[in-house]
Amino acid sequence: MTDRLPEPDRLDIDGLSLAYVDVGAGHPVVLVHGNPTWSYYYRRLLSALPAAGFRAIAPDHIGMGRSDKPAAGAYPHTLDRRIADFGRFVDELALTEPVTLVVHDWGGAIALSWAARHPDRVARLVLLNTAAFPLPAGQRLPLALRAARLPGLGDLAVRYGNAFARGATVLGTARPRLPAAVRAGYLAPYDTPAHRVAISRFVRDIPVRPADPAYAVLARTAELLPTLADRPVLIAWGMRDFVFDRRILDRWTQIFPHAQVHRFADAGHYVLEDAAEQIVPLVLRFLAARTATA
Q: How far apart are CA 62 and CA 16, in angstroms?
């Protein structure tokens, strides 16, 4: 398997180019990344799914990956807008059947907010160290995230030092160090301060208080998530995630009590980097069960 992604297709979103990989044929599986990653995070699934008879679709959010990277004032960079953009993306694909969503990090907040409002368009869910609800009561953001949110200094570190993207390639995994080529793959789209605006804005948009703009969005999503509780759900969780920890996983198992849950003791936030050899076959079996019963 190569670590290189195919050249992306493109979709116009209000004059901005949204890049996405669309490979294979069959049941559509939409893979939604978080911050500070891009569709590169799903490269192993993008290789395995088409070979197993599925259509794999992985968009890069505006400002991320190979999509256009507008300046701070040229695009809202809010959760509300990202949910709307994701809905437009799915609509433009004109899919004729409900999709499977695979989500990681902010990909859960974005795609599951859309899904909870359109449950008839969702067949199955795969959750990888993600959240789509406000932080549990009493839970604080880790120090690294609080530092990245500091006015002025945080933005300087994230945009001009690339501290968040670089740090995530170290702190995001449980292994001592990602291979140099993989680190380079994650960092490639974020090569200048102008190309790191979305990374900074994602960090600043994390809702920690009811007054934060994204808080009400996620609170409403949390209310609606039970509408998806009858869908098959697979959860693959890195237990050494310092952000999406056991308390977040426990919340998911409350929302989806019938989910298949696989805990990986030696995997971190980038669970697909630490445990791809186990997770990719799990996802394929999960989808094959759907095919057998469809």
A: 8
